[in-house]
Amino acid sequence: MNHFLILTIQHLEKKRISVDRRLSGIIFGILPGIYLILAFLYIFFITRPEFYFHHVQPPFILSIDYLVPYLKVPGGLSEMIANLFMQSFCYRVPGTIVLFGLAGFIGWLALELMNLIRTSRLNRIWALIPFSLTIILTNHYNFPFSVIVSLLIVLTCSLLLAKKGKRPAGILILYTFGSLMVYYSSGSGYMILFSLMAWFFTFRFNLWKSLLIALFIAGFTFFFCRVASATLFPIPQEHTFFYFFPGKIYFMTFEPNVIFYIYLLSVPGLLLLAFIMTGIQREKRTDSSKKVIMMAGKAFAVATLLALTFSGHRATCRGDAGKIVAVDYYCYHNDTARTAKVARSLDNYSLTANLNYNLAISKAGTMTEDFFKFLQLAGTDALHPDAEFDPEKSFIAADFYYNLGYITEARHWAYASLVDFPYSPRALRILVKIHLITGEYNAARRCLIILSKGLTNRKFVREFSPYLQDTSMIETCREIMEKRNFIPAEKELTPFIDVRFRELLEANARNKFAYEHLVLYYLLDAQLERFMELYEDADNYFSEPVDIYEEAILMFGEVNDSPVNQPYQISPGTMARYREFNSILEQYEGDEKMARNVLYWKMGTGYLYYFHFIYPRIVKPVIIYPEDEEPPI
Amino acid sequence: MKNHRYSEKPFPGSFPRHILFHGLVAVIITMLAGCRGDDRSNSEANRVAKLFPPYYDLTIPPNIAPLNFIIQEPGSGFRVEISAGNSKTIKIRQCSPEITIPLQKWHNILSGNSGKTVQVNISVLDHNRWTRYEPITHHIASDPIDPVLAYRKVHAVYLIWREMGIYTRNLTNFDERPLIENYSTGYGCMNCHSFSNNDPSKMLIHFRIVHPGTLILNEGMLLKVNTRTPDAMSAGIYPSWHPDGNHIAFSTGKISPHLTTRLNKVVDVADRSSDLVVYDVKNNTVTTSPGISTGMRENMPAWSADGRYLYFICAPEAVKGDDESLLHSRYSLMRIAYSTKLNSWGEPEMVLSADSTGMSISMPSVSPGGKYLVCSMTDYGYFTIFHKGSDLYVVDLETNNYRKLELNSGSAESHPSWSSNGRWLVFSSKRMDDVLSRTYIAYFDRNGVAHTPFVLPIKNPGSYHTSVFNYNLPRLVTGRIETGPVDIRDALQKGSLEVDFE
After folding, report:
1. Given A31, A150, B74, B201, which residue has the most CB atoms within 10 angstroms?
2. What band does B1 get if pLDDT is binned at 50, 70 and 90?
3. From the list A416, A449, A632, which residue is nearest B158 (CB)?
4. Residue of B2, B43, B33 lying closest to B129 (CA atoms)
C-alpha cells in the first residue's frame, strides 16, 4: 500500500515537474519566440521603416565633407552610424531586418548584463522590455535613431566593463576609457547613463572599495562633462550634462515622453531588479513560498512587458501623424490610389495630406475628375503650398511647383528642403531634374555626384547620368523638355497663386496642369465669373464634359439667376444630379445640418456640395501692415 | 604530436588563405603593372590635360598651399612632374587621377623660385600608351598672400538657413578651423565677419535671431554690443573698420528678401531704406551725419586707406508702393569726408554715378594703397550675389576711371576684398556651377591688372563636387585669429552692451 502510495506520489511529482517544465518551456521558449515573430511583423506592418526613412531623409554619403563634421562633436559618431543604419530603411524588408536586428542586439546585451548579476531564465522576459521599446519608439518618426545607437554603445561598453572589470583597478581603467568613448560617440547624457551602469558593477567589491569607485565615477562624470564643455567642445551649454540627441528643426523636434525615459533607464532598472531578486533568493524560504515567488516573478515580468509594450505603442503610435507621412510617401512614389485611400482615412483634416492628395491626382492626370473626392477644407490654400512660409512643406512645395512647371519656385523650395535636410536624396533628386531643365548642367552634375556617393540612389544615378554625359540627349527626355517649355516669363515673383497659374498659362497655353489649377482656384474661391471666362478654353484640355465644371456652370446660373442649361449644353447626368441635390436641400429645408449629412454621403464628392457646404467657411485673415511697414515682397 | 605546419595532408586547412593571399599579390602586381605601362610607347597630345579645378597658367602666391587637382582624362596611370628652376622636381606616379602634391616639396619649389615659373607636366596612360600633354606653366609671384582666409560656410540658402559657421583656413596648408559654428549657439544666423586692415586681432561678427548682437574682438577682448540706438532703423548691418582700428562704419536700414522667376537672379534683396552710422569702439558711441542719413538709400560703407573718406553706395529713395523704385534702382558710388579725431563730417561727393556707368554699384573695397577700389556692378540692386550678371570692376580713385576686371566669368562675382599688401584679391564666384559660391584668388599687379583667378586650393578637390556649402564673404587676414568657438559661444551667452548715440 505504502509502496503504491509512494509510486503514486512519485508519479504525481513527475507529472507536476513535467507540467512545470512544459509551462516553463512555454513561458521561456515559445512565448518569447511568438513575441519576437510578432515584433518582426509589427515593424513590417506598423512601424514601416520606409516611412521613417522618407520622413527623416537620413543623410549618408561616402565623402569626407559629409563624414568629418560628425567626428568633431560629441554625439556625432552615433548620429552618423544611425544615418548609416537608416539607409536600409529606404526599403521595407531590409529596413525591418535591420531594425529588428538592432532591437534584438539591445535585448541580448540587456540579457547578458542581467545574467552577470543573477542568472535566471526570467531574464529572457525582462530583456524583451528594452527590445520592445526600441521598436516601439521608432513608431514616432521624429524619434532620433541615434538614441538607439547610443544605447547600443553604452550597453556594449557596460558589458565589457562588467565582464573584464573584475578588480577595482580594472574597473576604474575600463570605466575611464569607456566613459570617454561614450561621451565622444554619444554625448554627455549617455556618459551619465554609462556611469550609472558602471556603478552597479561596483557592488561586487566590498563596501569601502565600492564607495570609493562610485565616488570616482560620480566625480569623473561631473568634472569631465564640465571641462569638456568649457574647453574642448563648443557645445551648447544646455548639452553640458544632458545631451541625448541632436537638435532638429522645429517641425522635426522629438519631445521626449515617459516611454523615452523608461527606455533610457530600462537597462539600469533591470539591473537593479536583478540585484533585488538576488537578495530575495538568498533568503531562506520553503519550497512552496519559493514557487509562489517564482510564479509571481513570472507573472510580474510578463505583465510589465505587456503593459509597457501596449502603453508604449499607445504613446508613440501617432495615428494621423503617421498617416500624413504615409500620404506623403505614396504621393512621392506616384501611388495615387494609396495616397487617396490613406488621405481619406485621416481622422482630422490635414492641409499637408490635402496638398499631397491634390499633387498625387495631378501627377496621375485626374486632377479635375478627383479633386472634390477629398474634402477641400482649406479652400485655395490647398493649391498653394507656400501660402504661409512653412519650411515643413518645402518638399511638397518643390514637388508641387515642379509638377506645374514653375521651375524657379521648385528650385527655391528644393534648396530650402536641402537646408533642413542636408544631403537628402529626395531634395537632390529633384534638383538634378530642375538643373537639367534650367540648363545648369554643372549644378545637376554636382547633385548627381553626391547622389552617386549615397547608398540608395543607384537606379536614379544610372537613369540620369547619360543626360550629363551627353547633354544633347536631354531633348529625348519628355519630362524635362515638357517642364522646360512651361517655364514662365522672368519677373518678380507674385505672392498670388492664381497669378502664378496665369503666368504659367501665358508662358505655355498647353500647360494643362496650370489650366486645371487656375480653374480649381476660381472654383474653390467661388469666383464663378472668372471660371466662366476660363471655361471657354476647356475644350482645349478635355475631350469629354467635366462634371464639376458643369456643376459650377449651374451654380453660376443659380447665383446670377440666368438659364445656363441650354447655352452650355449641360449633360443629362449633371442635370439629374443637380435636381436631386436641390430636392434633398428642399426636403431638409431649415435643417442644414441634416441636409449636409445626407448630401455628404450621396453627393459629397462634387462641386455642388463644396459650393453649398464648405465654401465660404474658410475665412482668411487680411493682414494689415502698420503705417511704416510694407508687406514683404 | 603532429606539427601542423608540416602536415602530410595534401591540402591543409589554410588552403583558402593561400588562394586569398596569392590572389591579392596577383591583384597588386596587375595594378602596379597597370600604372607603369610601357614607357617607350609615348605620344604627344597637342593640348593641355583637362584638369579640375582648371589650374592653367596662373599667377600664384609663393606661400600658397599645393594646387591639388584631378586629371579628367581617361586613363589607368597618371604621371605628374612639377619642376621650377634648380629645385628638386616633384614626381608623382599613380593609378588615381586625383593628384595630391606633397606639401613640403611644393613649398620648397615655390619658396626657391618666387618671381619665376613652375611647370606642371602631365602624362596619362591609356590602353598601354602614355600620352604626354602640353606643360602647364604657373608664374610664382614674389608677393605673398596673407596666410589666413576667413569665410562663412552656409548652405545654398534663399530665405532660410540651418547650419552655418565662420571658419578660417590656413592658406599655406589645408588646415581649416571653425571660429564659430551656429550649432553651439542655437542655430542663429551669423554674418558679416569683418577685420580692420586684415588684422586678426580686430574682428567683428553679427549674430541674429539667437543671442543677437555684434561681437567685437579687439586685441584679445571679446565684447558683445547692441549697435541699435533708439533712433536707428536697425542695428548695424554691413560693416567697415576704419584703418585706425577704433571706428566701424555700419549701414542701418530695412532690407527684405524677395524671390523672382528669373533664372539668372532667383533671389534678390530689397533695400527699403538705409543710412550709415559710425561706431566708436573705445567710447561705445554711435554717430552719424545728415549727409549719410538722408531719404536716399546709403549702404555698403568702405573706408579709404587713409581713413579720411568713407565710401558708400547710394540709391534714390524707394517710393512706397512702387516696386520699380524699390527693387530696380541703381546705386552710385559716393564718399564723405570724416575726421575721427574731430568727429567732423564733410559733404557727400559723387565718385561714380549710376547714370554714367548704366549699372548699379555694390560691395566697394578700397585697396590698402588707396589707389584702387574694387566693386561689383550689376544691372540693378545692391545684393549682387544672386545676380548672374554681377561682375567685378576696378575704379582708379585718382582719376575716377573704371573698368571691368579681367577675372570675371559669366557667373555671379561678388564680395571682393584685398590682401594686406594689395597684390591679391579674393572674391566669391559662382562660376563652378552657378549655384554655390566658391572663393577665388587673383593676383592684382602693379599696373592694376587682375590675373587669371583660381579657386581656393583644397586638399581633395573632389570635395568641390560634394560640398553643399557656399563659401561666403572671403576675407584675408595676416595671421591666426586668437579666439575660438568656446570663447565666442561663452561671450555670446552674456548680455549686450548698449551703445550711446552721440
Report:
1. A150
2. very low
3. A416
4. B43
